[in-house]
């Protein structure tokens, strides 16, 4: 497999706002010239639309958006807040790039420096998914993202520090804060809730059964369990996210809130338990050597691994997976939206940051594969080993042009639009059935390597995991209903994080455990840097000064969140002068206690090259 060229045809990329590249500080005169150069000289009031999910889908996003809109209006900006279904929000933002601003939580994978590569590098500015949805282009940031891949030790730390400070100054997005992951759980059938992360598949595999068979003879409602339930009880999960019941395509970014279900259905070569190191999983082992253009990994697969349909899993499937993620058309010609044929690659909208580390894959034999990486350190390269391995005998037939109702969709393949039901993976759980918007049922896959008596290379607590023979996800309409469902013993745990408003209800229920842990993901206000005046980094920086993160933490999250100034807050990579210390260290709020100081705000916008007419913010 050879990695496709990174130069994408113009008609399939958004035009990069290159004039903003590398700019971190602009005087008002330079800002005015920048707007003139980008064709934006408007006497009209600055008008922005904020898109976000509705309250029944997200307990925080809409409230954040409305408060931010209120601050923007105080600053003289015309603002509209538009809530929409999560699936449609992600489609408009991540796939179509049709937005001014959006408020949403990020996926959980942005916890290491290299995770920022696909999020911010300009080569991804026209791609779909969480690959630079902001259209952000900054040559300094590009260079630092590339430098941190190649460096080690203090050199890498220095590159990451400069990277984070440049991003904080130019604000492609404004970090609001890291919310606590709040869940309600029962402990009469399963334990270890406090030590698990249910945003990750490993969280489900880490669960323990409550005691021995005799200890599990009651299910909490004084109803005796039957013999099969006592041996391997079912895990009942209640969720407010209906999307996994409708779509199990691991490539469909708009249907994925977390990686948990996909990680239970699909194995990857490696796994990460702590977000720092990657250890072998489907791979029995790997060894790195230095190639001419970057590291090379020789990977040995576990013996006798099979797909859920009984077909053998081989090194050819691994080779196919990386080729397919880079180009889901596998080199076929796909008609674009303007009716022209285009032989350029059609990459998957997920996993591009990780799969782009790979330049070539070769199956040596049925159990051995060699992977060539870009010029990077081996520790960075292992991130590419965490993508799901796909069965070639299923996905190879999905390379043609996508169609809905017989009408072809330009520039997309069938792989990107299929709902992939039933899914065929190799993971520890296999698909049983689904009822869209209601339930999803998965069973333990008895031929998985975790079920073997002689399994090695995995943590001892995962031997013979999972601790259940069936996992059922049931959909309800609200966080409070989810908590009530667990309290009434109709579920074991809430599968999606709950809002802070549910905490008093959980605390009053003696049968429930309140499980609270800091999440690895954060809420952000994302800016579309393709659209003026958001093309101007000084304008985005000034907008960030209008967001009182401490106020949002108190009023919206009820204290169950930590305000932050950087996407790597809480990691060892955060430099001391980007740590939260009562206020944002880079873009402090222009006011106090949630109230803007209008004169300071107007002065800041004037310094950025804007003007006011009758209290309305207008272009220069």
Features:
alpha+beta; disordered N terminus; 3 domains; Dipeptide-binding Protein, domain 3; Dipeptide-binding Protein, domain 1; seven-stranded mixed beta sheet; 620 residues; five-stranded mixed beta sheet; D-Maltodextrin-Binding Protein, domain 2; 19 helices
Account of the 3D structure:
By secondary structure, this protein is α+β, with helices and mostly antiparallel strands. The chain folds into three domains: 23-171 and 528-618, Dipeptide-binding Protein, domain 3 (Roll), CATH 3.10.105; 182-240 and 428-518, D-Maltodextrin-Binding Protein, domain 2 (3-Layer(aba) Sandwich); 266-417, Dipeptide-binding Protein, domain 1 (Alpha-Beta Complex), CATH 3.90.76. Strands 1, 2, 3, 4, 22, 23 and 24 form a seven-stranded mixed beta sheet that branches. Strands 18-19-20-7-21 form a five-stranded mixed beta sheet, covered by helices on one side. The longest helix is centred in the N-terminal third of the chain and has 18 residues, at 153-170. The chain is globular and about 75 Å long. Keywords: Signal, Transport.
């Amino acid at each position: 497999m050879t990695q496709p060229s990174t130069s994408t045809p113009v008609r399939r990329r958004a035009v990069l706002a290159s004039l903003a590249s590398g700019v971190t500080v602009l005087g008002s005169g330079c800002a005015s010239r920048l707007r003139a150069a980008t064709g934006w000289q408007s006497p009209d009031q600055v008008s922005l639309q904020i898109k976000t999910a509705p309250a029944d889908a997200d307990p925080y996003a809409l409230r954040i958006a409305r408060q931010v809109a209120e601050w923007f209006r105080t600053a003289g900006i015309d603002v509209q807040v538009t809530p929409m279904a999560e699936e449609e929000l992600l489609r408009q933002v991540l796939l179509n790039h049709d937005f001014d601003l959006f408020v949403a939580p990020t996926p959980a994978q942005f916890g290491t420096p290299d995770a920022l590569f696909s999020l911010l590098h300009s080569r991804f500015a026209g791609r779909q998914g969480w690959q630079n949805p902001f259209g952000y282009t900054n040559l300094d940031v590009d260079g630092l993202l590339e430098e941190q891949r190649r460096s080690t030790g203090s050199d890498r730390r220095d590159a990451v520090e400069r990277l984070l400070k440049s991003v904080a100054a130019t604000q492609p997005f404004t970090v609001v804060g890291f919310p606590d992951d709040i869940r309600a759980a029962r402990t009469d059938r399963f334990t270890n809730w406090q030590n698990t992360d249910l945003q990750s598949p490993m969280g489900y595999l880490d669960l323990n059964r409550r005691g021995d068979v005799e200890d599990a003879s009651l299910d909490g409602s004084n109803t005796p369990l039957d013999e099969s339930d006592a041996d391997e009880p079912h895990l009942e999960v209640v969720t407010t996210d209906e999307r996994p019941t409708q779509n199990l395509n691991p490539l469909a970014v708009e249907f994925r809130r977390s990686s948990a279900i996909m990680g239970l259905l699909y194995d990857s070569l490696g796994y990460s338990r702590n977000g720092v190191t990657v250890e072998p999983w489907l791979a029995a082992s790997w060894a790195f050597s230095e190639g001419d253009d970057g590291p090379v990994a020789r990977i040995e697969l576990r013996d006798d691994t099979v797909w859920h349909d009984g077909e053998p899993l081989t090194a050819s499937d691994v080779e196919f997976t990386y080729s397919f993620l880079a180009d889901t058309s596998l080199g076929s010609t796909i008609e674009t939206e303007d009716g022209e044929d285009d032989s350029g690659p059609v990459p998957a909208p997920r996993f591009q940051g990780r799969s782009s580390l790979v330049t070539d894959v070769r199956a040596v034999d049925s159990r051995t594969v060699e992977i060539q990486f870009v010029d990077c350190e081996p520790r960075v390269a292992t991130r590419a080993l965490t993508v799901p391995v796909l069965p070639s005998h299923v996905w190879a037939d999905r390379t043609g042009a996508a169609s809905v109702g017989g009408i072809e969709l330009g520039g997309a393949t069938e792989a990107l639009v299929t709902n992939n039901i039933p899914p065929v993976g190799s993971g520890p759980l296999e698909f049983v059935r689904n009822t869209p918007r209601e339930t999803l049922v998965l069973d333990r896959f008895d031929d998985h390597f975790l079920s073997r008596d002689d399994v090695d290379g995995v943590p001892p607590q995962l031997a013979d995991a999972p601790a259940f023979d069936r996992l059922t996800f049931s959909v309800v309409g609200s966080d409070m209903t989810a908590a009530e469902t667990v309290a009434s013993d109709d579920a074991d745990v809430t599968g999606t994080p709950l809002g802070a408003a549910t905490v008093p209800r959980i605390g009053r229920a003696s049968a429930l455990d309140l499980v609270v842990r800091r999440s690895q993901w954060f809420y952000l206000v994302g800016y579309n840097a393709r659209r003026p005046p958001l093309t101007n980094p000084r304008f985005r920086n000034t907008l960030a000064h209008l967001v009182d993160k401490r106020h949002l933490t108190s009023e919206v999250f009820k204290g169950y969140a930590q305000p932050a100034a950087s996407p790597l807050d809480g990691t060892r990579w955060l430099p001391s002068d980007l740590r939260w210390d009562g206020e944002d260290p880079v873009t402090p709020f222009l006011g106090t206690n949630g109230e803007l100081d209008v004169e300071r705000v107007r002065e800041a916008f004037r310094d950025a090259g804007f003007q006011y007419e009758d209290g309305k913010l207008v272009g220069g």
